[in-house]
Design brief:
Number of helices: 10
CATH topology: TIM Barrel
Strand content: 15-25%
CATH superfamily: Aldolase class I
Number of strands: 8
Oligomer: single chain
Shape: globular
Largest sheet: 8 strands, parallel, barrel
Strand order of the largest sheet: 1-2-3-4-5-6-7-8
Low-confidence stretches: none
Structural class: alpha/beta
Order of helices and strands: HEHEHEHEHHEHEHEHEH
Number of domains: 1
CATH architecture: Alpha-Beta Barrel
Distance between the termini: 24 Å
Amino acid sequence: MIMDLTKEEVAKTIDHTYLRPEGKAKNISKICNEAKEFGFAAVAIAPYYIPLAARELEGSGIELSAAIGFPLGYTTPKTKAFEAREALENGATEIDMVANISALKSGFWPEVEKDIRAVAETCGNAILKVILETCYLEEKEKKELIQLCLEIEGVDFLKTSTGFGPAGATIEDIKLFKKMAGASLGIKASGGIKTLEECQAMLKAGATRIGTSSGVKIMQE
């Protein structure tokens, strides 16, 4: 039986997320300070604020992730690659990219592959998380997209959701990710995770990172 992690151990799995469209610079500074206070794994934000967050987190050892192609995923491969390159140049250490679900639903799998490869090649040694936005996918589509990610060099994580869709992470999807990817890829559960109990359940199911905007609340339970 997998034992519950301590709060401190859970904190080390959390990507402390702030992607609100009305967010101000002071909000970014605040979440960076919170990440340092609680020892979160990363701060995840929009590309615009990456330079500010990079200054705030300098020397902390906390990763800085930029949301790319966010939140709908149907910008072009060149656009996503440019976004990722600029974010990395500005101080990001990780990239969370939304896969092109629109192309996938149309059956344009070569375009889906091209999209992910473009960002993977741009990332180099930086961590790349591919967001599947599972709430829009059928079981067969999830499996095909997971398999594609396994085959593309440079993909480091499978991620469930943006948090902007009609549903977020589920235990069933985390188990599917784990069954197919094993230890080959990290697994990020994201979307709707608001309690320590939910974090523990996702981690037990196979997640290795938790994406949440409720990190401080979770630590204060």
